Every structure is written in structure tokens, then in C-alpha cells.
Amino acid sequence: MRGDSFSMSIENLPDSPMGSRKKKMQIRKVFDKMTEWVTPWRSNLESPREMMILRGDVEQDEFQYASSHCLSSYYSVFVVRLAIMVMLAILIGLLTVLTWHFTRIYTKQSLQTLAYGLRYELLQRPVLRMWSVLNTTSELTTAQVKLSEYVIKKYDKPTTQEELVEMYQAMKDVTWALFASAKALNAITINYRNGFVQAFHRDPASSSTFYIFSDLKNYSISGTGPEDVSGWNNKSIHGNMSAIWYQQQLDPVTGENLGKPLKIPPDDLINIAGISQVPDGEASWHVTVSKYMDSPLLSAALPVFDASNKSIVAVVGVTTALYSVGQLMRDLVEVHGGHIYLTSQEGYLLATSTDGPLLKNTSNGPQLMKATDSEEWVIKSGAQWLEKTYGSKRPHVVHAENVKLGDQRYYIDSFYLNLKRLPIVGVVIIPRKFIMGKVDERAFKTLIILISASVCIFFIGCVCILILTNGVSKEMKLRAELIRQLDARRRAEASSNYKSQFLANMSHELRTPMAAVIGLLDILISDDCLSNEQYATVTQIRKCSTALLRLLNNILDLSKVESGKLVLEEAEFDLGRELEGLVDMFSVQCINHNVETVLDLSDDMPALVRGDSARLVQIFANLISNSIKFTTTGHIILRGWCENINSLHDEMSVSVDRRKPWAPMKTKQVQHRNHLQKSCKNANKMVLWFEVDDTGCGIDPSKWDSVFESFEQADPSTTRTHGGTGLGLCIVRNLVNKMGGEIKVVQKNGLGTLMRLYLILSTPDTVDQNIQPDFSKYGLVVMLSMYGSTARMITSKWLRKHGIATVEASDWNELTQIIRDLLETGSRDNSFDSQHNISDPLRAELSNIVEIKNPVFVIVVDIGVLDLTTNIWKEQLNYLDRFSNKAKFAWLLKHDTSNTVKTELRRKGHVMMVNKPLYKAKMIQILEAVIKNRKRGLCNDLRNRGNGSDESHDCLEIDPTQFDTCSSDDSSETSGEKQVDKSVKPSTLHSPVLKNYLIDATTSNDDSTSASMTQKNPEEEDWKDRLYSGIALDGKNQKSLEGIRILLAEDTPVLQRVATIMLEKMGATVTAVWDGQQAVDSLNYKSINAQAPTEEHKSFEEETANKVTTRETSLRNSSPYDLILMDCQMPKMDGYEATKAIRRAEIGTELHIPIVALTAHAMSSDEAKCLEVGMDAYLTKPIDRKLMVSTILSLTKPSAFQTSLSA
Amino acid sequence: MDTLIAQLQRRFCDFTISLYHQGFLDDQFTELKKLQDECSPDFVAEVVTLFFEDCEKLISNMARALDQTGNVDFKLVGSSVHQLKGSSSSVGAKRVKGLCVTLKECCDSQNYEGCVRCLQQVDIEYKTLKAKLQDLFNLEQQIVQAGGRIPQVDI
User: Fold this and answer.
1) How far is B34 from chain A (nearest CA, A)?
2) May I ask the CATH class of domain A776-959?
3) Are B47 and A1181 inside 8 Å of each other by CB?
4) Which homologous superfamily does the CATH classification assign to the domain defined by B2-145?
5) Which end of chain B offers a freer environment for a tag, N or C, measured as fewer CB atoms within 10 Å?
6) What is the pLDDT of residues A445-481, one digit of tens each?
7) A1054:B91 CB<8 A
8) Subunit contact A1054:B46, Cβ cutoff 8 A
């Protein structure tokens, strides 16, 4: 296990930075993969949108693919996180193991080495002591032997007792000298051949020294020969009971005899070496015991040879106590702990480091003890372990670590010392605790600390990883979210695109049936045999249909604008008139809402501008209808003023200061303008500013920008309360932008919303468009009696500006007062001075008016000022009637003013009646009428009054503007719808401008007027037909194309046949051809062209005027067709090419044959293309009969058409 | 006899209505019928025949064009289908027209598979229509032969 981890660590250690790098690489890879999943998708995003649309299905797959990728990448983050954690765990684990291992191993190894040395040392020293003890003993023995030999040689062959005694005495002296010098000796014995024994002995117990000798009397001098050596034995010593032993105490220092020799029993004798111990004449070693000593003794024995060196004459024995070795061991162990003991080869204990006994007392006296029998438990068990482990074949050196004895661990080392003839085994037993105890403890602690630390680090690391990768995973989440969002957005875009595409493609399909429905309804309405109920229902249906058509048109417009296919018309139109009509229309709605509609156009507005009138009207219609929706009380003002593009720069600085919120737009405008100025310097561009100001609920400033988004409403709940799709403002903004302008909601004081927009329109070159009539010279005095304060104020301001004295009155009382003051001046000259309820400015005004000489009073009375709820109004009228000779009354009627009131007014001779609201143009009409009337004189006036009751005035009461076509027979709402309807319809025809708003009473008197009016009715009818070309073509129009020659170029046989039949049914003469080439050929322009110059040549002499007319007539006559219906897509030569060819051929001639395109496409872009190549109108397939008829008629009989209308 | 006529007339009405309801025909066909009067008694049949001839021609044209694997002339197919769309819308063959629109889209996106599929559908559709109209005309004829009047069918 440890080995494994070690090898692993060895492998990993140098690798570890590499490993982390690898990890990084892995992470990087994973990230790369993620980004890979994202990037192709991203690149897709930039791919062209068209491709997207075309490959909808494919993309959907891609979406799923991307989302699945996203999911898997999300998982991969999880996996990466896990992997990093595992890596961290492994790393920390390795680190821990390594740290632990190294700290432990190195310490352990060094300690082990140290311990080994220590143990060795420990053992070595007692052994060396042993050795030295042995050596000493041996040396002493040898010395004793040598000395003995010397003495014996000297007393060679003692013959006498004296000699012998002398010799023994000499021996005793010599021996004593030696004994005394060697303090460590326990005893020296000399055993002579004859049995005499001399011995010195130290008793450590009593610390006294003894001389021991045997009785000499029994020994012969001669002794036995060498041959008797074998007779020597120990018995002769111990067993020789005959011998008497003496023991004499000596002074340990001097060797003086301290007492008399005492007889001692042989049992108390010390060991005396005998001849038996030196059987081979060599030195021998023994371990012996003595009863005086508690430790074993080491005894050496050596023989002493005689001079001839042939026989042993004596045996010298030296005994040393091993006590000192044990002492040394104890000393050593005291320091180091543990146990040391020495045994003989047989296992007998020689010395131990303990105090325990080394001998055992047996009946035969003390005997050596085996180590295994030692009383010391450690030694005993150690010895037992050694014996058990190694048996009898114990190696010379044993080093055993971790030997478990009992519950402790020990080191056991054993050395075998082969001393001369005395092999010794030394054993050291040291508890492991003493050496490794600290290390083990520390290793354990280190391990614990390391493990806990690494666990901590691991957890911290995990937390860190989590925190660190949290960002990544968050990013992944966000990215996934983003992908989802983008996915959704793209879907939305795609669907929106599909929507636009679909709508664009469906435009025709949608509009045609609606037009048909409305047309059919018109037919139905014009039918006489409808019951009232049916009529009401049908009218309702028609309203609904027009509403639906309007909605459709809104959507289609939006899609058209969005798909960039909207083409704006460039045609002259009367801006003021359009707006007036619009306000007229909406005022009807407003009056219902109790809201005042005011049109306030500045005088410098150009009368005629070039642009798309329908779209312009649509803009304001949308804005105003929007305002009406949200305005319950108050007023809606449509303001307009104009800035000349060239003079704008000077004004800019001023206007920027004046209108802070408008400032950014202005700067934009400047850029725009600069651009414009560069591009078309000479074009007469005007910047027209408009404001639609209402007092409605207003728009929250935060939504000022978003209200212009499609399907966006300022407050979602408005859909519930007010309805609407939220498309209106979007269309408005798109249209305004298309016209080079901008629209914005502007901060306004007080309630409501103020929308400000500007448009850049070009004005026709005709100069002096707005000739303002000069009224100031007529001395007119206008009294405005209207209860709508805003309109009154604006009108009076305008009147004053033009030098017309104006008095305002807001209710009946005020009116009567002023009338009295002004008109009854004759009777009560200065009566107004006495009036106290007239305010000061009014008084000043009145006094000014009085000073005007011969004033003409015009009293404009709002019908609402009269009390119509009761019958008081009649009296009020009568009252006013009194002044009718002094002043001219003009009445402002509401659309719902009852007929009785009208009749009454008429009966009274008040013929100047206009519908509300009052605006500039109407005011001018009134004033002009008054002035004209004044010229005619008073008598006419009277006559006029007399004929007032004539019913023929009926038709006069409503101003026959061009809008009366809408408002004459329909209710208010229908008129509004029709207005929009009309404005949306691409009208190639322009409405003839009917200038009179007000039919003057004087003209109406003439018979011719009534005739013209009767004439007018069918005209209007006709006009209406043409205007709403899908509508009403009744039976009498069936043959409406009588006599018209039509060339039909159509390649599809079916269509050709159908169209032919259709046209022929309506009386037209049709020639069908199959392609463009045939069409061109059949026109035969070439011949005409060739003809024309020749004619020209012929008539060269003639007058030029004549010539031209001739040619023209000839050309007109020579043209075989009145009109061409041209299919756009045809083989050989398509419609466009054919038209171009025809138009080319027409160059240089006065001829222009109308060409109507037939196409299956229904977009304005196609229309634009058609018109571009020179076609005059455009019809879509399948052919709508009525539309076709009206188009053909408008093109073929333009003169008749116009003359009939512009009467 | 009268009962037979009435039965025939009812069948005619039902059949016509079913044709409208199933989307084979639309209002254009009604328009077409309105154009038919004493001066051109077989106008509808004539136009329809023209239409079917045209159809056959155009479809075979397209089939030929689409047959040339590799370099399909989508432009040719496009113009053919455009024509077909025009004529079918003029006749009031609603389904054929709808398919034409789809086919045109396929053609514009150069979707070969889609074109082929659509063309097959157009083929089927036009044949079905042909059969249906044949039945219708047969019914008409039967009514006329029985001495009855073709009833006006209001859709």
C-alpha cells in the first residue's frame, strides 16, 4: 500500500505541474467545444435573411440542434466541474501521502541508523569490558604461570622440607605481589603437583583478603612424577578430606597476616583450579560460581611446567568476577533504557543489566541460570523469542526490530562473540518506545494533521471550484438563455417575415373580396325595394365591411411599409382642403364625444403641395382618431405651420431655444436638410410642421417612444376600453419617416398629449399660391358666439390678425348683451357704458368697433348657443331676427341639428349655414359671401328674406365640399370610414376641387342654380362610382364601354377568353393578341410614323398651325385602338417590353395610347414597375369587372369625365 | 317528368355547392357563369375546356422541364406556373390556384423536390377538377335535355 502510493508519488511528483497543465488543456478543450457549438450558430445569424426565410424547415432543425448542444454543454460544465474536483482530490491526497511519507521515512531511517549505532555501541561496550576482563585475567594468569615457573625452576627438585617451604614461601610472595597488584581479581590459586594448594582470595562481601593453604604435612617433597598427572583431580582438592585447610586473613594492602590461620571446612573453599582443567596443557576458561559471590566468576587455568618443560608441576587458576561487566551494563542501561545481557554459548546468563540474581540456589549450591529462566521478564521473554525464532542455529548477528514482547515493541540485537574458548552471546533488548516512541507519536500526529488539513483544503477547493465555475455555469446558463431568446427572436422574425410576405402576397386576395362585398352592398343599398329594417341591416353590414376593410388596409399598409414596398405618390394636392375635410369628418365624431375639433393652419401654409395626399390624410386621420379615442372632454387641435427650407437655418438658433424638447430632432433635421439642400437645391422643398394636441389622458413619458411600435399601446387596458390594434401610430411613424419627416411626442403643459411631426414636401413651381383676401377694407365686424373656447379663440385671433374687428361671446347672455350694445347704438348711444358685466378688454373692443364707420356686422352663431332642449330657441331666434337687417347671421350647425331648426332658420332667411367646426376656409367663405352680398345692396337682401321659405334651399344647407359625398347620406361614422377608405385607395384620379363651401343665398335665388344643382346630382353619383370603383355599377353601366376599341394582349387562352367576353358584354370591341410583339405590330405605329413625316412634307407650304392640327387629327384617326390591356408576363415579348416599344414608337408623335397592365402580382412595387415603363394603370388578376370598367373609363374618356365633374 | 327535372336540378345544386365547399371552385367561376348568356351559351364550357387544354400543355411543359435532372430550368417552370396560376384564377379553380402558388414558391426557392411534389399534386388536382366539371356539365346537359332550366346556385 505504501509502496504503491510511493511509486505513484514518484511518478506524479515531477509530473504535477504537467498534470495541472493537462487539466487546463482539458478545460480549454471543453470550452472550445462549447464555443464551437455556439459559433456556427452565430455565423448563421449573420447569414442573409432571405436564406432564412427560404430555409425555414432546415433552420428549425438547426434550432433544435443548437438547443440540444446547449443542453449537452450544460452537462459538460457539470462534468468538468466534477473532473476538476476529482483532480483536486487526487492531488491533495497525493500531497498528503507524500508529505506524511517523507517526514516519516526520513526521520525513521535516520533514527533507525542512529538506533542501530546506539544498540551496537551499547552491546559493544559490555562486550569489550568482558574482553578486557578476559584479557586481564589471561595476562595475570600467564604472568603467574611465568613467575611460578621461574620460582619452581629456582627451587628445582627440592629435596628438603625446608627447601620446599622456602619455595612455597617464595611462591606465596610472588603470588601476593601479583594478587595485590590486580585488584579486580577474585582469587589466585596454585595447585601443586603434590596436592599442596596456595590461594589468595578476596571476599567482596566482607571486603577482606584471605590466604588459603592446605596442610603441608601430608605432602611428600618429591611428589609424584609427571606420570602421575592423571592422578590429579579435583577430588584431591575437595575430596581430600584428609587435607586440612587453613585460611588466614591478610591485610589487603600490605599482605601482613592479620590473624592466625584458621581451619576452614572444605565446603567453604573457593574454586581451586586443578590439573583436570588443563588436560591438554593449554589455558582453559570456565565460568564458575562461588558461594561468596552472587555473580558468576570467570576462571582461567594454566599449567606450570617444570624446567624441562615436560611435566606439569602446578596449575595456576585465576578467578575474576564478572560483576564489573554487569555494573557497566547497568550504567549503560540507566542512560538508554532497555536491557542488556550476556550469555554463554549454552545460554547461561553471565551478566545482565538488571539487579536480578544470575544464579539459582540449588541443593548443590548456587548454579548458573539460563537466560530463559531469568527472573527479569523482559530478558526472559526476549530470550524465549530468540530461541523460538532462531532455535539452535542462531546466526552470529541478529537485528530484530519491532519484536512484540507482551504489549510493547522492542528492538532485539544479539551478537556472537567468539572469544578464546569462551564464546559469548550478547543481547540488547531496547523498547522501541525509547527510540521511536517520539517519532511514532509525531508521525501519527502528523498524519492526523495532514489528513484533516487536506480534507479542509479539499473542501475549500471544491467550494472555490464551485464559485469559480459558477461564473462559467452562469455564463452557460445565460448563453443558453440567450440562445433560447435569439431562437425565439429568430422565430418571431421569421414569422413576422412570413407575415409580411403572406400579407403582401395576400393583399389582393384580401382586398378584392372586401371591395366586392362593399360594392354589392352598395348595389343593395341603392335598391329601392328594401324594407327599412333591411336597409338598416345592410347599412350596418356596410359599416362593418368598411371597418374591416380599413383594418385590412391598415395591416396591409404596415406590411407594405415594413417590407419596403410602399411607393409614395407624387401628385399635387390641396393640403388645406384635405385637412379641412379631415377635421370636418372627425368633428362629427368629436361632437358626439363633446370634444372640440379645431384646425389651426397658419396663413403661410402652401395651398398646393406635391406628395401622397392619401397617405398624408392617413397620417392625420390616424393621429386624430387616436386622440379622439382618449379624449373625453376638451379639444383636439391640429396645428400646422411651415418653414421654408432655405430660411430654416436662420430660424434654427431661435427655435432651438424655444423648443427644448424638440432640439435633438432639429439637429437631425439640419443634417437631413443639408443633405436635401445638396441633392435638390432648386426643388421647392418645404418643411411642414404639424401638431396634434389633445386634452386626453396623455401618455406616460416612458412610453413616448414605444407607442410608435407596432401592436404597442400606451396602456394595455385601452384595448378593452377603446379597442384598436395598436397599429395606427406605427403606420403613422412609418409614413412620416417615408415622407422624410419625424414624429415625436412632446412635453406639453397641462393634460393630454402633444404629437409633433414635420414632413418635407415639395411645392409646385406655381408661385403665389396663397393670395389672402384682404378683408380689412370692408370694415367688417365679426361677432363670434361659440361656446367652444379654443376654436373661438383661434378664429378670433386669426380674424384680428387680418384687421377684422372681432367680438367674442361664449353664451347666449353675452351674445345678447353685445348685440344690444353694438346694434342698438342708434337708440341708446352710450348704453354700453352703463353695462357693468362687460369685462374691460371687451369694452375696449366694443368702443373700438363703435368707431368704425359704416360697419358690416357678421354674427357667427353656434347653434349650440341656442337653448335647443326646450322651445326657447324659437324666441331666441325671433330676438335675433330683429337685428337681421343690421347684421348678417351665419349659423354654425351641428351635423345632428334637427330639421325643424334648419327649416326655421331658413324660414327666417338665415341662409348662411355651415357645419361645425369653423375654420379658416369656412370663415373666409362666410366673409366673402357677406361682402358680395353687401355689394348687391339691401334690396336683394330683403328679397332674399322673402323667398327664405322656399324648399329649394334644402340642398344648400350643407356645404357641398368634396367630402359631402361621404357625409351626405351616411351617418357620421360611415363618413369617417369612407374618408379613410378613400384615402387608402390608390386613386389615380384626382378629386376635382369644388371650391364653394357655402352656396350663397343670392346665387341660389337664380333659376340656373337649381338647374345646376339637379344637374349636379347625377354627376356626383357618377363621381362616387368612379371614386369607389369597386362599388355600384348598376344596370345602366352594363354597356358602359360602348364603342371603345380595346386591344387585349394576353397569352393565357382562358384569361383571354374571359376578358374578351367580359369586355364585349360591356359593349367594347375587343381584339385579342397572344403576345407583346403582336400587340406592338397590331398598333402599327411604324406606318403611322412613316406616314406622318410625309404628310408633314406635303403640307410644308401650308400654314404651320393648320399642319399641326391635320397631323393630330390624322394620328388620332389612325390609331386603331382606344386602349390596350397588357398582360405583364407573356412569351416572346412581355408586357413591359411591349409597352416600352409602344412608347418608343410614340416618341415624336402626339399620340399616347392608354395601356393598362394586367398582372397576377398585387404589390405596389409591381405597380411602380408598370407605371415606370409607361403604362397608365394597373389591374390585377383575376380581373375585377367593375374595377376594370372604371379604370378603362377613366383612361379613355378623361375629358368627358373631367368636364362632367368640374362644372 | 317534372319530378325528374326537380331531382336533377337539386342534384345539380348540391353538386355545385359541394364543389364550392370543397374548395374546387371559387367566386370567379360564378363570375364566369354570369358572363354566359344567350349570345354565348357554351361560354363556361368553352373557357373550361380552354383551361384544361392550357393546363395539360403547361403541366407537360413543366414535367419536361423538371425531368431534366441536373439542370432544371426553374425559370421556365416559373413562367409556366405563373401562367397556370393566372388561368386557374381566372377560371376559379381554387385548388389548382393554391397549388400553383405553392409550386411557384418552390420554384423560386429552387426546391426541386417540392416542385416535383407540387406538380404531381397539380396534375392530380386538375384531373379531379376536370372530372368534376365534366360531371357538372353532364348534369347540366341532362337538365337541358329534360327540358328544365339550369337553376341559379347561390353560394
Assistant:
1) 10
2) alpha beta
3) no
4) HPT domain (1.20.120.160)
5) N
6) 888 888 898 899 889 988 888 888 777 778 878 888 8
7) yes
8) no
